[in-house]
TrEMBL record:
It comes from the Eukaryota. Residues 24-234 form the Phospholipase/carboxylesterase/thioesterase domain. PANTHER family: ALPHA/BETA-HYDROLASES SUPERFAMILY PROTEIN. This is Phospholipase/carboxylesterase/thioesterase domain-containing protein.
């Protein structure tokens, strides 16, 4: 399966002056029916994301794979690496970097703004990338960013792998959802993923699916990616290779 693969530079900056990195685009082999932004995890880049997306049998999807700004990260003791926002301990009492969350969500929305009107759009990601994907979903559900500015994209699909919903406490108050769960995981506690799915369901995402994988650490596995392919194909009504 061959794809047209290109990269684009980036000069945009987030609210704190950190510049977003290079964006990679994987063009569809078949009829262009959907465009998805796929977001990498902490310390990774858009190039590796594009290679993963290129390996999936989804010939009708155009993939846009941006690279996060390089910035200090509190959970790494201030070490500098690519990150969509600053993150410390992932806990119910943790502080969320809402300024950078909004800046990254806005940057991603801008990548989708110029897509044709008949093309369905969505966002997906892994780990910290999943966090931004789920945060973008709540911006869509609420119709606005945390800043109050209008959210411009009609999201048709959101995928988050091994991630969590940042700012869930304030979002919970807005959409009147509150849940408890318990089960440990390697990097992102299982209960935060489960709670995120519940919160999204309360926000109006009635097609939300939360899928646990026995023994899965903080990485992806072929079975998981196969189910992503199946879900996207069904949810977006993709026609298959042409």
């Amino acid at each position: 399966m061959s794809y047209s693969h290109q990269s684009m530079g980036s000069g945009s900056r987030n609210a704190r002056g950190y510049e977003f990195g290079r964006t990679y685009v994987v063009r569809p082999k078949g009829k262009h029916q959907a465009t998805l932004v796929w977001l990498h995890g902490l310390g990774d880049n858009g190039s590796s994301s594009s290679q993963l997306m290129e390996s999936l049998h989804l010939p009708n999807i155009k993939w846009i794979c941006p690279t996060a700004p390089t910035r200090p990260v509190s959970s790494l003791g201030g070490f500098t690496c690519t990150a969509w926002f600053d993150v410390g301990e992932i806990s119910e009492d943790g502080h969320d970097d809402m300024e950078s969350l909004d800046a990254s969500a806005s940057h991603i929305a801008n990548l989708l703004c110029s897509e044709p009107a008949d093309v369905k759009v969505g966002i997906g990601g892994f780990s910290m990338g999943a966090a931004i994907s789920l945060y973008s979903a709540t911006c869509y559900a609420l119709g606005r960013y945390g800043t109050g500015h209008s959210y411009p994209i009609n999201l048709r699909a959101v995928v988050g792998l091994s991630g969590w919903l940042p700012g869930w406490k304030s979002i919970r108050n807005k959409i009147e959802s509150s849940y408890e769960a318990a089960r440990p995981d390697d990097v992102v506690p299982y209960r935060f993923g489960e709670k995120s799915a519940q919160s999204l369901g309360m926000a109006g995402f009635r097609q939300t699916v939360f899928k646990p994988y026995q023994g899965l650490g903080h990485y992806t596995v072929p079975k998981e990616m196969d189910e992503v392919v199946h879900w996207l194909t069904t949810r977006l009504g993709l026609e298959g290779s042409r």
